[in-house]
Amino acid sequence: MVQLNSAATSTEQLTSKIEELASNSTGHAHPAKQLYASPWNDHVKGYPGVRLSDRALLCPTHAQAEKLDSMMCSLYDVHSNPDGVINLGVAENGLMVDEYIQYFGEALRHGLNPVDLGYGDRLSGSKRLKTAIANMFNENFQPVERVTPEHIITGTGCTTILDQLSWTILNAGDAILIGAPFYAGFDVNMVSRSGSHVVPVYVPDGEKAVSPASLDAFEEAYRVCVAEGREVKAVLLCNPQNPLGLTYPRETLLAYAQFAEKYNLHLISDEIYALSVYDNPNLPNAPEFISFLNIDVEKETGQKFDKSRLHVVYSFSKDFGANGLRVGCIISQHNQFLLRAMLHTCFLMKDVLLSTLLNDKPAFKAMTLENRRRLTQASTYCREWFRSRGIDALDTVAGHFMLVDFRKHLNISTFDQERQLWQRLLDAGVYTATGGGYHWKHPGFLRITFSVNQESLKRIEKELNLKVVS
Ligand SMILES: Cc1ncc(COP(=O)(O)O)c(C=O)c1O
């Protein structure tokens, strides 16, 4: 991957970097459907006119955004675009869409007030929303120390919050360690503006990926960074894990805390799937979700822990099937400097919809329980669907997706072949995400979102000529 900190100094170097970037972005468009043609190459290559900043030109993440945008230009709709692309590559939860449309419609009709039409009453998010978020955390995740509105800064989704956080805590070139596989967006959100360096840490497979032993790989990654002269500033975990769909046991959270303390790192816990945990009889011992705010590190380990390093991020995109509302937050209970620095760059959003739901306890409870029931049903259906066709899908207990293993069925052993499979399905109208895009070390996997319509499975069945074998 091209790194921002290795900035080109001459036009020649810059052009060669741009060519490298441009070559990364070719082949992502959807040839069969003539989707969005990228203006990126033509715009920058040899262009003599007004130029963008080197930061923007060399930013390594444009190709990924373009790929996604290309797909979104031709999205499937049962009535208006039945031949469009079905998106199984992004974690969206359509299982509760009718309920939420009805609920949010009512909330908007009855809840709007004059503050909503102004700049609001707090720069870091309205009092109403921050109080509702604090209450939600206190009532659902049992924090050691009660969350108050003063601990919270809101923003337009986790994407923006992570971008702001990264800009606030990391200098260009600083390293942030993340256990692989991990959400592809971290490569974008943590890097694009701060110029930091995401280091994938390859942890063991299966349930060991979320075990305390996974921290051994972090020790090694830390040593390698130091040997390369790179400053390691942060460690990030996503709990529940994306793309593995697993929850972290308490001991592993403690091991993360001790690792962060040992090397004086920021500790970021992305808890965006906190309420999207469901049942899977194949994983009877999977822990329920535990928020990092529920961990009393000093009491539980008997060792010192500087609480100012801990930052939890959350958004309403996933647990409330509301990616489009763009509401997220950071909760940092002991770091006034960080909150102050992020206040300068924070956004304010109109929040009547979510605060109405969070304050309506019976509706909140009913919706989250029903969501859990439907996630259980949809994940079981999807996993069994693949397994009955001779294709394994990993067991999960959280999130809206699962890694599906096409290695045996299609004889895949390289990431090139994995990419070809991805392209083949895209040409057949199904957008998925490659395991490689999530730093999954075994070629031949796709991450499939199971919480959307099942027409997509028919397309996959037809394209790959799948047959029921059991
Ligand atoms: C782990 C994780 N963090 C953050 C995000 C971004 O979410 P948001 O819609 O709040 O920007 C996603 C979206 O898929 C995600 O999976």
UniProtKB/TrEMBL annotation:
Ranges where the Aminotransferase class I/classII large domain occurs: 85-460
Family matches, as PANTHER family: AMINOTRANSFERASE CLASS I_CLASSII DOMAIN-CONTAINING PROTEIN (PTHR43795:SF39), BIFUNCTIONAL ASPARTATE AMINOTRANSFERASE AND GLUTAMATE/ASPARTATE-PREPHENATE AMINOTRANSFERASE-RELATED (PTHR43795)
Protein name: Aminotransferase class I/classII large domain-containing protein
Organism expressing this protein natively: Kwoniella dejecticola CBS 10117
InterPro entries assigned: Aminotransferase_I/II_large, Ethylene_sulfur-biosynth, NHTrfase_class1_PyrdxlP-BS, PyrdxlP-dep_Trfase, PyrdxlP-dep_Trfase_major, PyrdxlP-dep_Trfase_small
UniProt xrefs under Pfam families: Aminotran_1_2
GO biological process, one term: amino acid metabolic process
GO function terms (MF aspect): pyridoxal phosphate binding; transaminase activity
Keyword Ribonucleoprotein found: no
Upper classification of the organism: Eukaryota, Fungi, Dikarya, Basidiomycota, Agaricomycotina
Recorded family membership: Belongs to the class-I pyridoxal-phosphate-dependent aminotransferase family.
Keywords associated with the record: Pyridoxal phosphate
